[in-house]
Design brief:
single chain, globular, 318 residues, Glutamyl-tRNA Synthetase, domain 3, 12 helices, 3-stranded antiparallel beta sheet
């Protein structure tokens, strides 16, 4: 079986150092493993997409020496007639998402939900944030609520989770498990504005692109159980997961696009060289003394996959 890995940036702002480290490590993992490396542009949310950021992301990756075998542009990811993995831009993939959405709906895995976040959090006195679980108010609605649902009010679609434990072994962080009913809750796969949600789109794209390895930031670790629930219901191949510890700023805060944290554009304007910027991505990791940071390729030649994984495991325990 051929291996395939991917990097999937969102063009919602300039790529910061943490985004670029995930891209570099995903590229390194693919090249060391002999995997096809795919670049996919996750631009599904038009409201968050900033014009020019997709092109800027491609330029940033090129400047660092990160290339790809398949992707959204014709300079590096040449899409041939025989290439059935594209499109490589999520905004062009609604037909793929719709097909899987219809399948899930027909098999009874989805239900309509008219609850706003504010409404259901008030009911359960839950704090604001992703950690709050939807209490299943529309899963078995009252007669009055069913009438509201049937009246044509704007609604989202939620995936109905089972009361079972999802377990997987992350290649960096080790065993992880979550009870879908207790720790996750029914989650949205299509928003009230009609857009397909992140989890559904990611699962569909990874499956049709035959992704075998998913390397991404540890902030997405909690997303994995949701995606595995969908993967299992759809009988898709389960990929290996590699969740990389996040880079934080001097105050210990994770980097974010919304505040322009350490974007490559900023670092370059400060006069930082490519070697300096690449070296920043290895701060805190052991085994870096003899690394040549001149380019992504020289790092590839300086390290091995086992060495990087061992160093990341140690870093995650600090």
């Amino acid at each position: 079986m051929s291996l395939a890995s991917r990097y999937a940036p969102s063009p919602s702002g300039p790529l910061h150092l943490g985004n670029l480290r995930s891209a570099l490590f995903a590229w390194l993992q693919a090249r060391w493993s002999g995997a096809i490396f795919i670049l996919r542009m996750d631009d599904l949310d038009a409201l968050r997409t900033i014009p020019g950021m997709a092109e800027q992301a491609l330029e940033d990756l090129n400047w660092l020496g990160i290339d790809w075998d398949r992707g959204p542009n014709t300079d590096q990811g040449v899409v041939s007639v025989k290439d059935t993995c594209g499109p490589y831009t999520q905004s062009d993939c609604d037909d793929h998402y719709q097909q899987v959405f219809d399948q899930l709906r027909q098999t009874g895995h989805l239900y309509k939900c008219i609850c706003s976040r504010k409404e259901w959090q008030a009911v359960v006195s839950a704090p604001h944030g992703e950690a709050s679980l939807y209490p299943g108010t529309c899963r078995n609605p009252s007669i009055a609520k069913q009438q509201r649902i049937d009246s044509g009010k704007q609604f989202s679609w939620r995936f109905r989770v089972d009361d079972r434990v999802i377990r997987f072994v992350d290649e960096i962080l080790g065993e992880t498990k979550q009870n879908l009913a207790v720790d996750v809750g029914d989650f949205i796969v299509r928003r009230a504005d009609g857009l397909f949600a992140y989890h559904l789109a990611t699962v569909v794209d990874d499956a049709r692109m035959k992704i075998t390895d998913v390397l991404r930031g540890a902030d997405l670790l909690d997303s994995t159980s949701r995606q595995l629930a969908l993967i299992q219901v759809l009988n898709y191949q389960i990929p290996k997961y590699w969740h990389v510890p996040l880079i934080t700023d001097a105050k210990g805060k994770r980097l974010a696009k919304r505040d322009g944290s350490d974007s490559l554009m900023q670092l370059r304007k400060q006069g930082r060289s490519r070697a300096e910027i690449l070296k920043l991505m290895f701060d805190g990791l052991s085994g870096t003394d003899n690394t040549n940071y001149e380019s992504a390729q020289t790092i590839l030649d300086s390290w091995s996959l086992d060495e990087l994984v061992t160093s990341l495991r140690c870093y995650s325990r600090v």
